[in-house]
Amino acid sequence: MSTEPSGTRVAARVRDDDLLDALDDAVEEHGSKSEAMRHALRTAFIGDESDSDRDSDEVMSAALAGLPPTAQSGYKTLREATGDDQMVEVGAAKAMVASETNVPSDSVRSMVLSPLKKAGLIAVTPHIRAVFVTVHPPTAALDDEVSR
Question: What is the pTM of this model?
Fold first, then answer.
């Protein structure tokens, strides 16, 4: 297991309808599939039900407070698709967000990505052949507020 701060991406295919329904319910509680799975893993394997490092709903609400609804929805879409501190090519990020939020893809940058970048929830980084969006956990925005 990696000890890097960016974490390790883990995937599983689920075909059991009961598990899928439970996961959908957990998404409502935790804000994303990623957070729901982290909580389930923490609870099942470590026995920690405190969510002391997250308190998902409260942290997510505080991090997204003041952002337009389209930016909030776009952040949740990106975070669920990528996980914390993971990168996605900006074109793919715009397409995902446009699809989920019904915002035209040529407006995603101004309506979603710019407010998220300003809030510290994402970083936009040019690389040699492409520009990438790095999706930060909601705690990053709160850490930024504390340090200002």
Answer: 0.61
From residue 134, alpha-carbon distances to 6, 49, 93 in Å are: 10, 28, 10
Q: Which of 127, 60, 39 has the alpha carbon at shortest distance from 87?
A: 127
Domains of the chain in start order, with CATH, are 66-147 (1.10.10.10)
**pLDDT for position 56:** 66
Distance CA 22, CA 89 (A): 31
Are 8 and 2 in contact by the 8 Å Cβ rule? The answer is: yes
Q: Please state, in angstroms and as integers, the Cα–Cα distance from residue 13 to each residue in 22, 31, 83, 122, following that order.
A: 15, 20, 17, 28
Q: How many CA atoms does the CB half-sphere of 69 hold within 13 Å?
A: 4
Report the alpha-carbon angle 104-108-112, nearest 5: 135
Digit-coded pLDDT (tens) for 107-127: 999 999 999 999 999 999 999
